[in-house]
Amino acid sequence: MITRCPNIRTRQAFTLAELTVVAVVLGVLSMIAIPRFGNTVERMRAEEGKQILMAVYAAQKRYWQEHGQTYTDDFDNLDIDMRPSTNFENIQLDASGFPLAQIDRANGTYTLTINEMGQMYCIGTICYELGLY
Question: For the chain, does the N or the C end have fewer beta carbons within 10 angstroms?
Fold first, then answer.
């Protein structure tokens, strides 16, 4: 038979102070994690824009080689099938090559461009936060 010591109190619930500390810690962690998660999602969207521009760049280079070292500003002349993007809009080509192509983020926060050398640039206030320059 097991007997209990009469002076030992059994603990049956958390105190209000313990619950408050846990709530504060979770609140601080969520304040740190939620903005970082938002930037991660936007970085993934920016990668989609970069992939679109790389595909356009490759098609422009093929056009340049096949048509006497000139670029086009008409998508119908390129050998590329562009699917609509929910994240980006207003893809523009420039036959002069400055920039070769550009694409706007659908919410208007930034624009990605690519030049004739294949270098990408980001124009907008969020570019630095996304690691795009």
Answer: N
